[in-house]
Amino acid sequence: MSYRNTILSLCLLSTGALAGDNYASVELTLLEPAHSESTWLREKQFMPRYPVELAMKGIAGCGIFNVVVDESGSTESIKLISSVPGKVISKPASEVIKDWNWTLANGKSPKSEEKLLRLDFCMGGSSQEEAASKCKQQATMACE
Predict the structure, then answer these.
(1) How far apart (Å, rounded) are the C-alpha atoms in residues 122 and 105?
(2) Using CA atoms, how far apart are residues 45 and 21, in angstroms rounded to an integer?
(3) Pairing status of strand 113-123 against strand 24-32
(4) Cβ-based burial of 142 (10 A; exposed 0-12, middle 13-18, buried ≥19)
(5) Using the 8-state DSSP alphabet, how is residue 37 labeled?
(6) Is this model's pTM higher than 0.90 or not?
(7) Is 112 within 8 Å of 69 (Cβ atoms)?
(8) In what order do the strands lie in the sheet with 75-84?
(9) Residue pair 27/93 in contact by the 8 Å Cβ criterion
(10) CB atoms within 10 A of CB 20
(11) Could you tell me the end-to-end alpha-carbon distance of the chain, in angstroms, rounded to an integer?
């Protein structure tokens, strides 16, 4: 496979469609604080992309992270609380989280905020909708 085709395949992997009739999806769940109580919200509220590193290895799973957003809206720290499988999710998921931009919620004063969030990385299904449905179901299961 040529270098160009490899790059094209990686782009497809990172946006959802996998080789053949297999798809991937990502589910983000804000565990604490509730969205309505948050000081800082993600600037763009779309689902994160499936990390290429995980997709290339066929890795699916979940991770729960403690994220601290400082008083200026920058991600101060990201700490893995638990994940399945093991710590393999930590680095690629942290890279995804690190790139998020935070915006101050309406009516809130800027202050540091600790967030607990869960990212599920799911593979499988014969359509993007089926993969997303499976990911929503996976997000209800334990991640430890």
Answers:
(1) 30
(2) 27
(3) antiparallel
(4) exposed
(5) G
(6) no
(7) yes
(8) 24-32, 113-123, 61-69, 75-84
(9) no
(10) 7
(11) 38
Quick check: helix, strand or coil at residue 129?
A: helix
- Give the pLDDT confidence of 52-104 residue by residue, as tens digits: 888 888 888 999 999 999 999 999 999 999 999 888 888 888 888 988 899 99
Q: What tokens appear for 37 in the block?
A: 């109580």
**DSSP for residue 141:** S
Distance CA 59, CA 105 (A): 34
Residue 133: CB atoms within 10 Å? 14
DSSP assignment, residue 16?
Answer: T
Identify the structural domains of the chain with CATH numbers, from first to last: 3-138 (3.30.2420.10)
Residue 116 β-bridge partners: 32, 66
Asked whether the beta carbons of 25 and 135 are under 8 A apart, the reply is yes
The owner of tokens 């990201």 is 78
